[in-house]
Amino acid sequence: MSNWSDTLAVFDLETTGIDVETSRIVSATVAVIDRAGEVLERVDWLLDPGIEIPAQATNVHGITTEYAAENGRGAAEGVAEIVATIREHFDRGLPLVAYNAPYDLTLLNRESLRHGVTPLVAPSPVVDPLVIDKAVDRYRKGKRTLEVTSAFYGVSLDDAHDAGADAIAAGRVAQAIARAHASKLPVTVSELHDLQAKWSLEQAESFQAYMRRERDPEFVASGGWPER
After folding, report:
1. Cis status, amide bond into 125, omega within 30 of 0
2. Which domains can be identified in the chain, with CATH numbers?
3. Which tens digits make up the pLDDT trace of 58-93?
């Protein structure tokens, strides 16, 4: 297994919605796992997003508007801490694992700008198990959600849509992919980062072509990675 996967920072957000431009952070986890997938460090945040948490979002992660308002940190303070923690891990040379990274990292960027926090600039190196899995096992049928992909690689995910559980599972999936597909992956994480940007663009172009052919001639898919 490539040594880039020996020690990984892992990151996940739970939010108010799916639109990265308007959604707010509700909870977040940044942790560090070792080669065996064991947690070495972990920080969790619960934030008061300052807006109503829609019922459909609460149904996913279980956090209500009232609970976040009563127990959550101020959004600006929390966002600043999340960014600082990720930046510290990059400074230590740790890759950051985020499943479907453009969602979490773009939303974190928009929240940073919203609250006057200096955002991450060109975050790197990032490891996105979703992009990698689609590239190394392109023709596998079925969904590629974190739950499905975790099960495929034998990674336990007992509390899906909890930021901590999802972040740690994503890191373990990245390590499982590194073990299963070592011959298809570069040795260095910097090479892997660049390759994922290329893969993400190719995957978006393929999906866009499919959607235009089958459903909507005007459909546009973004391939920007790891941020959009």
Report:
1. yes
2. 8-188 (3.30.420.10)
3. 999 999 999 999 999 999 999 999 999 999 999 999
